[in-house]
Amino acid sequence: MNRSQLRSQYLRVNRNFEKQYYPKIRKAIHVKVQAVIDDLKAGGYDRAFTNLSTDFGNDQLHGIVQDLYVNVGLRHARLTYRRLQADVKKGFGFNTEWTNFIINYLKQYLIQKITFDVSNTTRNALMKVLTAGTIQGLSIDQMVGKLEDWPFERYQAARIVRTETNRASNVGATAQESTSEYEQQKEWLSVQDFRTRGHNPKDHANHVALNGTVIDSGDQFIDPRNQDRLMFPGDPKGSAVSTINCRCQAVYVNKRDANGVLVPKRKTTTVIYPGQRQRGQIITI
Known about the structure:
By secondary structure, the chain is mainly alpha-helical. 59% of the residues lie in helices and 8% in strands. It is built from 7 helices and 7 strands, in the order αααααβαβββαβββ. It has helices at 3-53, 59-88, 95-136, 140-148, 151-179, 207-210, 240-243; strands spanning 184-189, 214-216, 221-222, 229-230, 249-254, 277-278, 281-282. It has a 3-stranded antiparallel β-sheet with strand order 2-1-5. Strands 3-4 form a two-stranded antiparallel ribbon. Strands 6-7 form a two-stranded antiparallel sheet. Helix 1 (3-53) packs antiparallel against helix 4. The protein is elongated, with a radius of gyration of 24 Å. 31% of the residues are buried.
């Protein structure tokens, strides 16, 4: 499969997941919007402001994001694994290991950040709407009407589902690499259209320039424009200008030596020195 075919496959698979999860994520965001609507109806602006000012969580979104990561990540782990089996000629996949990798990565780097950032952004946007409503002297019914068809809710859901679906696909490909018995390399694959970062000289990142960059799996891609260091497209340790709405992919390939032979991963060994304790015992050599 050439790079153009791979690019088309990634986009097709991710679009299908985006369609599946967009209504779920929008519904989770709307739970917060509906709470404000209910507060407005029950107690007016004062009650809406008071309850909103202390609301920072979104348990429903938390569960949806984890489900998205597992399903999207596993799909891309399997796609990458199957593509590389032409080299290896064996293996049945590592669904349990990949799932654990994805969930652990999500818990370590992403889930709290995603849900907090979304909740905080939604909360701040709602505060601005309520503040504008009081300044303009809008009635409760008028404010409720604005919130029942609030454009921000749609835009927020679209941004989240696009960003996290793509990020999950790259986490899944990384999970595949973690179970491989061979060394791998990864190539940055950018979408070839005007929306890709770098086409515009004013863009704060340059994914056009990164396209085709090949590095070892444990190394980091370096954006030539902002110097962000990314393990993969959408790396949560990167800045927002490098990751939000990113559609790029990391394509993994098996590494070969100068003779074209697959390079096995080095096995780690433990050396036990005289007098060293192991499981509570003194080891003598």
